[in-house]
Amino acid sequence: MNTLKYIDNKEIIIKIFHLAIDYLIGNFNDEQTRRSSHKYGFQNADEFLLVIRIMSKFYKDILVKSEKLTQFSCISPEMSRLAHLVLSARCSELKRHLEHWEYLQNTNVIESFGWNTRLILGDSCFGKNVHQLITLDLRYRHINYQKELVFEMNNVILNDFIYLLENVLAR
C-alpha cells in the first residue's frame, strides 16, 4: 500500500479506487487487473493487484461491518478524502453486490443454461428409427462451488418438463 504514497495525480487515484470497487464487485478479475497496471503507472503488475485486493477488502469491511471510513495512513489526507467520494458515489452498487453475495451463501442459483438438439437417423435397433434428442445443460452455483447438470430427453419429455416449469412459475 505504500506505493500509493507516490501517486499525486487525483485522476489516477480516483481510477484506482474505482477499479478496487470493480474488482470487489467482480467486473474485473486478476488477469484484467494485472494488465491494467501499466496504465496507472505501476511497473510490477503483482504489486498493483495486491493494492487493488487490499483496497477492495477495505471497502468490503467498511460495508459489512458498518465501520466508518477512516483516513488511510498510506496516502495523503487529500487523497484519502477521494476514497470517501468514490465510496459514496458507488455505495448503492456495493450494497447491492453484498446483498447478492449474502444471498448466494444460502441459495443455489442457476448461473446459465444451454441446450442442444440432435436428430438421430437410425440406431442399432432399427435402421429407419428417426427421433430427436434434446440435451439440456444447467450450470448452477453456490458461493463456494459450481456444478453442472447435463441430461437428455425426447420431445415428449421436454414438453412435459416445460409444462411443469410453467406451472411452477405461475404459482
Could you characterize what this model shows?
The protein is α+β, with helices and mostly antiparallel strands and 171 residues long. Helix content is 51%, strand content 19%. It has 2 domains: 103 residues, no CATH class; 63 residues, no CATH class. Strands 1-2-3 form a 3-stranded antiparallel β-sheet. It has 6 helices and 3 strands; from the N terminus they run H-H-H-H-H-E-E-E-H. Strand 1 and strand 2 form a beta hairpin.
Describe the structure concisely.
This protein has 171 residues and is of the alpha+beta class. It has helices at 10-25, 30-35, 45-64, 77-89, 91-106, 155-170; strands at 109-121, 130-141, 146-153.
- What class would the helix/strand composition place it in? alpha+beta
Q: Level of helix content?
A: 40-55%
Count of individual beta strands: 3
What does the average pLDDT come to? 80
With strands numbered from the N-terminus, the spatial order across the biggest sheet is 1-2-3
What is the CA–CA distance across the termini?
Answer: 53 Å
Write down the overall geometry. elongated
Order of helices and strands: HHHHHEEEH
How many domains? The number is 2
Tally of alpha and pi helices: 6
The gyration radius over C-alpha positions equals 25 Å
The main sheet comes to:
3 strands, antiparallel
Q: Give the oligomeric state of the chains in this entry, treating copies of one chain as homo and distinct chains as hetero.
A: single chain
**Proportion of residues in β-strands:** 15-25%
Uncertain stretches: none
